[in-house]
Amino acid sequence: MSYDKHAFEPFAVAVDLAVFTVRDGALRVLLIRRGEEPHAGRWALPGGFLRPAESAEDAAARELAEKTGVPPEGCHLEQLRTYSAPGRDPRMRVVSVAYTALVPDPPEPRAGTDAAEARWVDWPVGESLAFDHDAILADAHERVGAKLEYTGLATAFCPPVFTLGELQAVYETVWGTALDRPNFRRKVLATPGFVAAVGGEPRRTGGRGKPAALYRAGGAVALHPPLLRP
Amino acid sequence: MSYDKHAFEPFAVAVDLAVFTVRDGALRVLLIRRGEEPHAGRWALPGGFLRPAESAEDAAARELAEKTGVPPEGCHLEQLRTYSAPGRDPRMRVVSVAYTALVPDPPEPRAGTDAAEARWVDWPVGESLAFDHDAILADAHERVGAKLEYTGLATAFCPPVFTLGELQAVYETVWGTALDRPNFRRKVLATPGFVAAVGGEPRRTGGRGKPAALYRAGGAVALHPPLLRP
DNA sequence: CCTTTTATAGTCACTCTGACCATTGAAAGG
DNA sequence: CCTTTCAATGGTCAGAGTGACTATAAAAGG
């Protein structure tokens, strides 16, 4: 870096969170309704400013815990990209580091001091969001869909123990396409490290149909071969 | 975002550039030798602070043009990620948005006012870089290697018109592995939009061996099917 | 008991891939 | 001039992976 002999301007640095979950076969995103100007009354992504001794990762984890009540260990949190257009906030110059989070079982969100309301909203969101949050959310969704292909990320949407049907529902919900069940099963089980069978062969019953075998995340970060979209 | 009712600290915001090129079968990265403290005399990534009315993308394009003399249209420039650890700069709190750039034919770099020296250095760099630039550079290299698999990015390393041998050399150089020439050819030509044959069937002669047919970038951003690493 | 529903097993044709071998066309060297 | 060398190009072949599809198993609900 070349700070020397160059002036620099101070900026406000914030984090914005695109928090996704899958519930009842629908993809949902956590939004807050803004209580103050600008954009009062409109939906926006949760977020907040960095504190003096805090990295953007720390701030994102803190905001996630504050807004959802989910501990940072229980969910996937990943930097998306940084948005820095000069006019993106009408009040002042704000550079925002956006994060994508995936949570398995969504508790009811908490409205913070700054938000009139916090809620899980079905994707795609009907109305347009505050600031440039439409673009951030679209980028986040695209990233999640792409990462399902070549990483084991889909298990982050699932509880610790899940069935292959639940895992398939994650793919179908995020991608918005139906998948062939036997073929999905074959690919997942043929990919080393994607899922691991739960010992003792317990099965989930209670619903309709034949009881399903249970699996947990296999710990693999990259899928070989990848599970490509149709 | 939830600025309201929260204090916020001012930060300095900078961009750092990981500029790669392929020359003589070697992957090279553009580095500057720092002229001032901290880390005076050590290699670092080129970069600089955002100006008041400038986005990070604008600042990265400006720095790239200043340091390399390459016009922004002629090369690939893409945001990598943002580094914001509190102690990453000993002088003050600096949040840096890192960019990866790929340039085809490297002109001699210009030493800026802040750099004692600017040079193309072979990858991997022997000595450790200033600040957290080792981590940034490693992340950039990993990203470039991954993007070669599923995007047509490799053509960004090549001149406007190139041979399949040159394209293959890009893959081999970035990945550090040898590829089978007939198979590489088959896959590239079978991937729609990756490359387009130059009309009139001209061929490049002058070197050893049979003259090679010429191609230009096909304009495809995503490769279907992808060209996976061995 | 019979139907519905979901999980699981298996088949088959087609494509893609990696590992090869063969040929072509130019330059280099005697 | 002829031979060698070298890279580009064309082709083969077996095995893995995939999509489409059929069949069976095990539960719930009437």
Automatic annotation (TrEMBL), chains A, B:
InterPro entries: Nudix_hydrolase, NUDIX_hydrolase-like_dom_sf, NUDIX_hydrolase_dom, WH-like_DNA-bd_sf, WH_DNA-bd_sf, WHD_NrtR
The keyword Hydrolase is annotated on this UniProt entry: yes
MF terms (GO), sorted A to Z: hydrolase activity
Domain Nudix hydrolase: 10-151
Pfam families, sorted: NUDIX, WHD_NrtR
Protein keywords: Hydrolase
Protein name per Swiss-Prot or TrEMBL: NUDIX hydrolase
Organism: Actinorhabdospora filicis
